[in-house]
Amino acid sequence: MTKRQEQILQIVKDEGPITGENIAEHLNLTRATLRPDLSILTMSGYLDARPRVGYFYAGRPTSSVIAERLHKLIVNDYKAVPIVVAESASVYDAIVTLFLEDVGTLFVVNQKGLLAGVVSRKDLLRASLGNKGLESIPVSIIMTRMPNIVTCTPEETLLDTAQKLIEFQIDSLPVVRPNEEDPKTFELLGRITKTTISRAFVELGKETNV
């Protein structure tokens, strides 16, 4: 919104309903000069116009309010505790953890507690087919390793993480930050899932001011 459009909105808020001619007089401009701004504000839903009455403030359009709120929802406020297994754990242990925790993705950490990989339900199912000795197969063999892991940071918006989940067709993202000792490795801070995104958007839709 331009400065002039903000001035128009304020004038209409204070004195509406008000004609276009009167708005132009307040700004020392011609009616023709203001016509494009008034059209934009009206089509955007900020103003409403009635013949022989003038312009009056209609309030901010719902789509604008929702878009603004979406860009303020950040990962740090919604991240959940990550469900992890050690890099040395067996595929059998990983399957048990997956079912006990009722999740679709496990994050694999090394001895220093740093993110080493990700293993999904599909990975574990694939590994279990035709293999009887799951206790002897380390999860590190089947996991996806860095740098092939899609991650997010605490400062990112939920909108950005939702886009990543859709784009890469995955169910969960690890929330990470670079390790101070080695920036190429990452500390695991949490997780963002499709359920997290859905819950946040449902909460947004229930807000009385939206």
TrEMBL record:
Cleaved signal peptide residues: none
Pfam families xrefs: CBS (PF00571), HTH_11 (PF08279)
Superkingdom in the source lineage: Bacteria
Domain (HTH deoR-type) ranges: 1-62
CBS domain mapped to chain residues: 78-136, 143-207
Coiled coil start-end: none
InterPro entries xrefs: CBS_dom, CBS_dom_sf, DeoR_HTH, Diverse_CBS-Domain, HTH_11, UCP026546_HTH-CBS, WH-like_DNA-bd_sf, WH_DNA-bd_sf
SUPFAM superfamilies, per the entry: CBS-domain pair, Winged helix' DNA-binding domain
Keywords in alphabetical order: CBS domain, Transcription, Transcription regulation
Molecular function (Gene Ontology), one example: DNA-binding transcription factor activity
The name this protein goes by in its record: Control catabolite protein of gluconeogenesis
Organism: Brevibacillus laterosporus LMG 15441
